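[step 3/7] fold_predict: job queued, chain A
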Amino acid sequence: MPDITTILRRDPNTGTANLLAFAEWLAQPTTPCGLIDIQLPHPPTPATLRWLALLLREELAGTIYQPGNTQFVIVVPPGAPATQVAQIERLQTLLHRQAQRLDLSTIPVIRYHHVPADSDPATILQFLIPDTADPGTLLNRLIAQLAALGATLNDQHQFDLDPVTGLPNSFAARQRLEELILTAQRQSQACSVLLMNGDDLRRYNEMSYAAGDQMIRDLATVLREQLRPSDFLARWQTGDQFLAVLPNTGVSGAAALAERLRQRVIERSQLWPLPITISIGIASIPQHGHTAGIALHIAAAALSQAKAAGKNRIVVGRPN
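[step 4/7] structure written:
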C-alpha cells in the first residue's frame, strides 16, 4: 500500500510522477540514460492527459514524469541511435493514430536526448526547453509549475478521489477496507470484498477515450445504486475496475449481491451506445483469511478466473 510520501509524488489525475518527484530525480547523481521529451503546444483537458499517460505507460519502458500540464518526460535506458529513432517514430505514429480518440488538435512534439553520466540539473533542464527559449523563460516556467504543484498539494482531498467517477480511489479504498475488516473482527462478523471489472472497455475506447470515461462513470452509477447504504464502493486501480466492501456479509450474501449487480449492468447498459457485462471475484473475511492483503489477493485471483472462463460471470475465491 503506498504511503503519503508516495502519494504526494504522484499526479492525482494521471498517476505519473509529478514535478516534486522529477526534481528529486534531478538532484541525484545521474547514470547514463535517455530522456524522451513530449511537449504539448496547449494545455489539454484532464481526460486527454490521463489517457495519454496510459498510452505512454503501455508503450514505453521507463519512469514517466509529468513536470507540468503540457509535458511528459520519460527516463529510459540508453540505446543505440537506430533504436532511439525507431522508438520515437513508433511513438509519433501511435499518437497520430490516436489523436482523435485523445482529442488532440495538435500532435505533441517528441524529442530524444542522451544524458551522460553525472550531468548536472541545469544541463538536463536545458534539454527540456525549446531551442529558442532563454534561461529566464525556463525560470518562469519552473516557478509557475512549482506554484501549481503547491496548489495541488494543498488540496489533500483530491488524493482520495478518482478523477473520473468521483468515487474513492485505490489509496482511500485500501484504508477503508482495513478499517472495515478490523471492525468486523472486533465484532466477530463477516466482511466480504467484490472485485469487479467491466468486460468491454476496449470497445468504448475504440470509439473514443471520452466514450470510455463516460462508460466508466455510467458503470459506477449503476453499481452505486444497487449497493446498500452500509456498503463501500471505490474505483480500483485503472480502467473499469471497481472494489466493493460489504460489511456484515458472508460469502452467500456477497454472491447474491454480486449476481444482482451483474444482472443490473446487463439490463441498464442496453440503453448505452454498446451493451456491456462485468466479471466479479469474491473474497470474504474470515473464510478466506484475516487481512486486507489476503482478501484482495484472493478476490483478484477469482476475478482472473472469471475472465478466463469467458467473462460475464462470478467466481468465489478459494482460501490459500
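[step 5/7] annotate
The longest helix spans residues 81-102.
Residues 37 and 80 are 17 Å apart (CA to CA).
exit 0
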